[in-house]
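ugh finaly. both done.
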Amino acid sequence: MDPFAIISAIEMCYGLGTKVIEICETWKNADVEVERRVVIVESAWDRTRRQAEFMVRVVPIMDDHLSRINDDLLRQLSTCLTLAINTLEAVTRRDSLSRPSLFGFGSRAKKASWVWKKDAIDEIVSDLEAWQRRFDPSWFLLMKIADPVIDSELARARVSETRARGLPTAAKQPFAVAAGLRHVLSPKPEQAKDVFLPDTSMEWRDIPFSSVKAGRLVGKDARWYIVDTIEVGAAARVRDIARDVGVLAVKLSRADPLAFGLLNCKGVVAVPRQGHYPQPSHRSSHPNQHDYSCFRFVFRIPEGMEVLQSLRHLLLNSDEHISLSRKVRIARELAKAVNYVHTFAFVHKNVRPESVLCFEEDYGAANQRPAGRSHAFLVGFDAFRAAAAETIMAGDMRWDRNVYRHPLRQGDDPAEKYQMQHDIYSLGVCLLEIGLWESFVEYTTEDEVPGPPQAKLGKTYDDFQAWLQENPLTTPSSRRDDDPLGFLDTVAFRLKDYLVEKARTRLAPRMGEKFARAVLSCLTCLDEGNEDFGGVGAAHAGDDGAAALCFIEGVMKSLDEISV
């Protein structure tokens, strides 16, 4: 794609954005609430402007696919800013026609004026935030380009960026977050060593239906953390696992939770097996070749979000008439998290509701604040690995796991090595659950089995078995070279067919066509006929870069275009 087309689009957006700010500036003295909103618009535009200026300087090194995505995003921004100008000018005209007169309507007209202005600015802020949400994935994907131009331009951009205390955030310091991400994409060995923490006593709290726990240091720190445990296994190579754990921890130490949907990692604790107390090889905590039973990721909980619950808990216990906007927010957050796991060059391998923590805040009518602040964070890294690393070809026959796995990854002996598209398939199953608001996995109660709840077969499994009876295969499908008649994996692929049919027949009436399209795209991401992943299906399954761009352009874009 011609780089001058993108540069021209950026220049057009720059002119439109400048005009929006000029109009808003004239309203600053209208009202305190109006002035506060103008400051928010100025801040949002300042971030967008600086990122656009950065993009102008790196356009020549972008490939055609990424250039096309950014060109489309810039056109959307141009439309957004044009509508903003029209809205602001309409309010200005309306305001001039309702100036106070001699008939005693002055205070009423003044109140109407600032209400119109507040509403107009709120609409602009909402549109700019929505655009920024669509832009961020491709913006951070730029950081993976192996070119010194990126490094020099990042250094140049960061000079003008205001530094704040604490961890940088994408909303306030996008270049600091981008530089941090780029810095850890290929971490040095000493970086991985520094993330290991000493093994200390902790107080634990279970999170119902979750693969992680909450924990805090006994007698030292009142702050709670999310702790994600990676079991080593008797025959595992401790050094290899420790290396991979350290690399992932380094990368997640740069995660901005609200931007990435991934919790920020404080460090990792290596827990020795009972009877083994190895001497540390680095500082006081880095694991050496001695035996360890597990590694514990320690994640910081974002401020104000102490009440976190698993998505499974929500699915099992909340009202089936949950709002459309709430479901869409959770879906967007989860898709974003999967995207950034892949941006960090890892595959998750365990995307399911037990691995998702949700924070939901609903404001009451008393304080007149907008309803709903929702965030979903992907955890459950117990099966992760680097995207380019070898995978363990092992599985199980558990329904609660296989229902989220691609057919070629189901069973005791998966047929295919794990790849990024398998995470995308798992995401599709989760999105289907969210859209229908039905839990595909059920759990035992104390009346059934004493002790903690255990996953069990339930309604969805029974429905699937009934569907198999109603839709028999007359000819076995041929799916694998070592199974020409298709007998070995027929049930696994039939489960996929069943889920696809549910998405096609039941989702659109509940969630709309765009949501249904996103789910179907995920579930069929390895099918040759998939339009969003066309050319990146089974024939090109190893092209992670192309798959990431297709995911952003297809799935994430469809979810972001939903208006609720």
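ok and the 2nd:
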Amino acid sequence: MVGPPVSDVVAAVIDMPEVRQPGTGLRGEGDAQSPRNRAAMLGHDMRAAIADILGGLALADLSRLDPDSQLQLQRVQSSAEQLVRLTDETLALVTGDDAPRADAPLPTSLGPFLDRIGARWRAHAGQRGLGFRLERADDLPAEIGTDPAALERILSNMIGNAVKYSPAGEVRLRVHLGPQEALCLRVRDTGPGFSDAALARLFDYAGRPEDSGQPGTGLGLHIVRELAQRIRAQIQVANGAEGGAEVSLILPRRSWAPGVEAPAAMAELPDLTGCTVLVAEDNPTNRLLVQQMLETLGAEVTLVEDGEEAAEALAARRFDLVLVDIEMPRLSGIDVIRRLRAAEAEAGEPASPVLAITAFVLSANRDQIYSAGADGILAKPIMSLDAFGEAIARVLSKRPAFRAAPWVGAPFDRVHLDRLLALAGPEDGRELLGRMREDLGTVLSGIGEGSARDDMALIRARTHVLISLAGAVGNTALQSDAEALNTAARIGQRTAVAGLVPGVMHRIEMLRAALGGELETRFAVEAAG
């Protein structure tokens, strides 16, 4: 469906009263046709449309295309990502909603960020018969704590000006660390450079000198300075000795380093091997994209296409993780989450981790989603596998022990054990029980050692074995606790690990003792002989 003209979008965001959110899943007070509500709906539809573009590009096999076509599609992808950020900023500006869109900002991977910048501007420069060169020093940080939206807007204006005013040659972006680990991003062009009059009014609003023969109003560098102040950076402008201009963005270490060492910064993506995940999403492109990302992380995925199907799936079984689109037919994501939380409370079950996916990004939307019971929010479009994995890790970290169940009954189910020994046969049954006790001993010592040494990999390895052992003898409570401990270790949630380890070790000891008793009782005659 073709969206409204840009002029309608602009007109819809002028003179806006207090916002109330419309939509099938995000209900609120007020007139749905008020300018601010219309702006919120337009913003939602714009994000949803861009999500389709980005999702389609992510699913497409670009390797079959010629290099020029690949470059153009990479440019489209980069521009669409930038459009998402500009949409958010515009919507926040006109509605007065300046709060963060979801959880605290995450560190930005500098390499992939620069790759996107390079792909976008290589295509732009090529259209004007120019070259574009990206030079990166070897000692750049892997991650920076700088707002990627602001940084991309700054570079877009810096590089855009350089491309505009270079009649031939190439534009170069050089990224390196300067004195005291300042991050320097320098854009050099082959144009005429800045006149004295232009330098005097360089950062003024519409500061282009009236007698300038160059097109435009000079707004770009005004925007650059304003954004640079926002991210605590400096702008330097100079004319090159051999012609051309050089505009530099300098981020002191205190500006780019904060947040990089925060717990949310993961060394690797979460491992979802063996985790069951329900995905409720009505858009087929988004559904396929999310499925591919989850399967890349190792998850077992169940897909549903609307809210009613999601509610039915959640009523039928429990999932390790639930991903719910907020705007769905028949039943909204808000109502799906509310039903799930009500059912869990009535049954006395622990709450399942829920990640809401939405194109609504205003604070009122977020408040309503969290009030319904979501553990986290991921804004559409999903920009990368890294962002997707980080959002999932945050949600799982909030409910690491959601599978844990109280200890009920005997340490093993006698029917399960009888069946297991019958399959082994009378001659091998004794050996099987003895080996299980030995394996449980190895698991017990490994979990204890892993906890003492803060070795999450060792805890994961031992709990992986424990899950199978507990399941084999029908100890569902220990199996659930082992799965919860495995999940907590996998995502590095050390507080949860510390809380789970004592109970798990105690139950392993109880199971070992019970199997030892069975060994003596069932094979007493053989032992006596």
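summary for the 2nd one i guess: The CA atoms of residues 10 and 308 lie 36 Å apart.
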